[in-house]
Amino acid sequence: MRPTPLSLYDALRARQQHGRKALAVLLDPDNLDETSLLHLLSLSETHPVDYFFVGGSLVISSHQAALITLIKAHSDVPVLLFPSHSMHLDGPADGLLLLSLISGRNPDFLIGQHVVAAPRLKASGLQLLSTGYMLVDSGRPTTASYMSGTAPMPYNKPGIAACTALAGEQLGLKLMYLDGGSGAENPVSGAMIAAVREAVSAPLIVGGGLNSGEKLYAALAAGADVVVVGNHIEDKPEFLAEAVGVVASFNQVAASQRVFQ
Ligand SMILES: CC(C)=CCC/C(C)=C/CC/C(C)=C/CC/C(C)=C/COP(=O)(O)OP(=O)(O)O
Ligand SMILES: O=P(O)(O)OC[C@@H](O)CO
Ligand SMILES: [Mg+2]
C-alpha cells in the first residue's frame, strides 16, 4: 500500500526536525505572464525549488488561477497561496498561508479578512497553514505595510519580534513569517531572525530583499527554515540556480556535520 503523503504542515515540521532548509519562489500574478512562467518552470526542472508561493499586494490581473493551473500541469512542486486579501483565493493550489498580521494593530488584517474568507476557505479544500505574519522595517515604506495600513516592527528591535512571535505561537499560529517586504532595501537582520528562532519552535519563513547568495545564506544561518525570493527572480530568472545552490549546499554541510557529531 502506498504511504499517505504528509500534509504540508507535517512535511515542513519533518524538514525542520531534520535541519533541512527550503527555498520558496514567490510568483506575483501581476508581474508574470505565461511565457515567463514557463521559462521559470523549465529552469526549476534543473534547479528544483521546494515551494511556489503565489500572491501580490493587489492582484489586478485576472489570471492567477490560470497561472496556478499551468504550474500544476508542469510541476509537482507544492503551490501555496500567499494572499494579501480575502479576495485572492483563486486557483488549484495545494495550500494557503493563512496570514494574521501580528506585527500590526489593524483588526481587519488580524481577524477581519479571515472572517469574510472562512466559509470559502472551508469549502475550498485547501490545506490551511495559520501563519504569524510580521512586517519588519526595511529602510523604506513597502507595499505590504502601506496596503495593510500598519507600521512595521523596528529593524533593530529583535526583542519585539521575538515577543510578537511568541505571542503568536501561544495563540496557536503554526508558522511564523518575518518579511522585510517586497524588494526590501535591507533584509530582516540576522539578529532578529535568531531571536525569533530562539523564542518559538514553529517553522520560520523569512523573505524580503533576499537578492544575493550571501543574503540567503545569512538568513539560513541565523535560523530561517524557509527563505523566500520574489523580486530578484522576477528580474533575473537565472538567479534561481544560485538560490537553489545556496540552500542545497547549506543542507549538505548541515547533513555532514550531523554525521560527524
Ligand atoms: C484571510 C485571508 C485569505 C487573507 C489574509 C490577508 C492578510 C492578513 C494579509 C497580510 C497583509 C498583507 C498585505 C500581506 C501581503 C502579502 C503578499 C502577497 C506580499 C507579496 O506581495 P508584494 O510582492 O509585497 O507586493 P507587490 O509586488 O505588489 O509590491
Ligand atoms: O520580492 P522579495 O523582495 O524577494 O520579497 C519576497 C516576499 O517575502 C515579499 O513578501
Ligand atoms: Mg511582488
TrEMBL record:
Its recorded name reads Geranylgeranylglyceryl phosphate synthase
Matches recorded under HAMAP family: GGGP_HepGP_synthase (MF_00112)
Name the enzyme's class.
Answer: transferase
Residues involved in sn-glycerol 1-phosphate binding: Y177, L178, D179, G180, G181, S182, G183, G208, G209, G230, N231
Q: Give the species this sequence originates from.
A: Hymenobacter artigasi
Q: Which residues bind Mg(2+)?
A: D28, S57
Q: Any idea what job this protein has?
A: Prenyltransferase that catalyzes the transfer of the geranylgeranyl moiety of geranylgeranyl diphosphate (GGPP) to the C3 hydroxyl of sn-glycerol-1-phosphate (G1P).
Q: Which cofactor does it need?
A: Mg(2+)
Q: Which GO terms describe its molecular function?
A: transferase activity
Q: List keywords of the entry alphabetically.
A: Lipid biosynthesis, Lipid metabolism, Magnesium, Metal-binding, Phospholipid biosynthesis, Phospholipid metabolism, Transferase
Residue spans making up a coiled coil are none
So what does this thing catalyse?
sn-glycerol 1-phosphate + (2E,6E,10E)-geranylgeranyl diphosphate = sn-3-O-(geranylgeranyl)glycerol 1-phosphate + diphosphate
Q: Which family does it belong to?
A: Belongs to the GGGP/HepGP synthase family. Group II subfamily.
Question: Which Pfam family name is an example for this entry?
Answer: PcrB
EC number of this enzyme:
2.5.1.41
